[in-house]
Amino acid sequence: MKKFLIIAPAVFMAVACKQKTATYTVQSRTLNEAVYASGEIMPEAYYFLKSNVADLLMKVMVKEGDAVHKNEVMAVLGTPSQLTQEDILHSQVALAGKNAQPGSSSLSELQKRIALAKVQQEQDALNADRYTELAKSQAVSEKDAEQARMQAASSATTYKTLQEQYLTQQHELTEKLLQARQQLAATSQGREGKILKSPVDGYVYKVYLKEGELAQLNDPVLMVGLPGQFKLELLVDERDISKVKIGQKVYFETDVYKGRQFAASVNKIIPLLQKESRSFQVEAAVQDTAQFYPQSSVEANILVREHITALVVPADYLLKGDSVYLQQGSKLHKTAVLTGIRNGSWVEVKSGLKAGDVIAIKE
């Protein structure tokens, strides 16, 4: 846990003068209290595009810094053989669909045979009726009439059988079409997770893998985000999180712009303890418009109290166990103090000293 005192520049100048001597006169100063946080800078909205299975990265269509549009294909996972298999399935679906059509070559031959069988059945039925009537007047023999009726019955059976064959074959071809479509759908669904598309109009901030490398399950392949606006993703110690509120000012530095300080504002506190670091994640909207680089490390101070009047002493004057040498006349007396917030240079004194006391470094 780290807490910082942020003191006005005029105070630093006054103390600097005092630190040239071996004594310091305790007095009240106006200061700010800040909580230390560290983390990284990220786009305001960003996405990691990942593989839903472990697979090879076959093709990357973009490079870092490219502008991309929503739904633009950025990378393809898999192997050429998998693409070939999908092409084959597309062809099989097309062929099965063609064969299942009423006028397809697979069914047209049966349709012709059915048409001929129908004509034959109708002719034989008429012939059987005619022979039956003729047999009544003994114009033909009963045997010939019976044979005509048998021929009509045979033609009717043939016609019916061909119709049933047509329906059976049509059903089989329809089943083959459905199976081909299901197989293609299953393959396409698997392929969907291997075709990585941009979810937004934005920029490619990072390409993590090269073509031919293995993308592990749920490992990022690309990072894409919205341009222009950035945020801080910070970790705050669990002992300090109760002091952090929405809207508090944040001042941060990043190694990319070493020596420059930037401003942000707390806009989100995630109330879930990260057990590994015993800290909470806090997000802050960056107010500056510099060209930041995502995932750059940052160190930040979150202002939790401003314009506090308190007694402060130089950290160099504080002894082990939180005590100081208090000058009383020509003698130095070791005096215990209760300290508050501190950084490397300054320490707040809550009790044990009062304004006007002179403390010293014992030589």
CATH superfamily of the largest domain: Efflux pump adaptor protein, beta barrel domain
Order of secondary-structure elements: EHEEEEEEHHHEEEEEEEEEEEEEE
Beginning-to-end CA distance, first to last residue: 32 Å
**CATH fold-level assignment of the largest domain:** Elongation Factor Tu (Ef-tu), domain 3
Mean pLDDT figure: 84
What structural category arises from helix and sheet content?
A: alpha+beta
DSSP helix count?
4
User: What best-fitting shape do the alpha-carbon axes yield?
Assistant: rod-shaped
Q: How many domains, as an integer?
A: 3
User: Class of the largest domain in CATH?
Assistant: Mainly Beta
Strand order of the largest sheet: 3-12-15-14-13-16
Bin the strand percentage. 35-45%
Query: How many β-strands, per DSSP?
Result: 21
Give helix % range. 25-40%
Low-confidence stretches: 3-21
Tell me what the structure shows.
The chain is an alpha+beta fold. The protein folds into three domains: 3-44 and 228-360, Beta Barrel (Elongation Factor Tu (Ef-tu), domain 3); 46-78 and 194-225, Beta Barrel (OB fold (Dihydrolipoamide Acetyltransferase, E2P)); 86-178, no CATH class. The protein has four helices and 21 strands. It has helices spanning 9-18, 80-100, 105-136, 142-192, and strands at 3-7, 23-25, 27-43, 46-50, 55-60, 67-68, 73-77, 195-197, 202-207, 214-215, 220-225, 230-237, 249-254, 262-274, 279-286, 296-314, 323-328, 331-336, 338-342, 346-351, 358-360. The protein has a six-stranded antiparallel barrel. Strand 13 (249-254) and strand 14 (262-274) form a beta hairpin. The longest helix has 51 residues, at 142-192. The protein is rod-shaped, with a radius of gyration of 44 Å.
